[in-house]
Amino acid sequence: MDGQVVAYLRVSSTDQNPDRQEQTVGAVSKMFVDEASGSSTNRPQLQEMLAYVREGDTVRVASIDRLARSTRDLNNLIAQLNELGVAVEFVKESLSFKPGTGTSSMDALMLGLLGAIAQFERALIRERQAEGIRAAKKRGVYERAPKLTPDDVESAKELQKQGIPKTVIAKRFSVSRTTLYQALKGAGSYA
Hints:
By secondary structure, this protein is α/β, with parallel strands linked by helices. Helices cover about 50% and strands about 15% of the residues. It has two domains: about 5-120, Resolvase, N-terminal catalytic domain (Rossmann fold, 3-Layer(aba) Sandwich); about 150-190. The protein has a five-stranded mixed sheet with strand order 2-1-3-4-5, sandwiched between helices. The longest helix is centred in the middle third of the chain and has 35 residues, at about 105-140. The protein is elongated. It comes from Leucobacter komagatae. GO terms for molecular function: DNA binding; DNA strand exchange activity.
């Protein structure tokens, strides 16, 4: 007897909408939706889906990069699901991995290539993001909000006057010593 079809969807942030993925996977018995980065498999709904599925079930995913961004994680998740007797389908790529049937050479090649492309795209995004931050810092338009409020800074100065070590003060406010030193000097974002 065939099991149920469940969907796994992932959006990278809360402002993204999973509707397009829902359309892609079609009608399913149950849907698991994570709002998290795909760079880790430590996602609540992914873990819940892994605990939920049973032998004979099928996990349907809109696209390979929605399940995992690294080829290692992708292969491990597919192997883990197949070992449970669960099939995995990627709709966009028209790839299917069924337990007990072995993976065809072409499917294994496609999975490896598409997984590597997803991993490469993620690395490019990180590089571009870092380049953008560096450029914004050079132009003086990229600054993070201060971690300490003006009241916190005044309290820290009072504690310092009382002879409390700066390391203790930093721990009390849950900031690094560098942040505390900048705040006490009125430097950086505390200027």
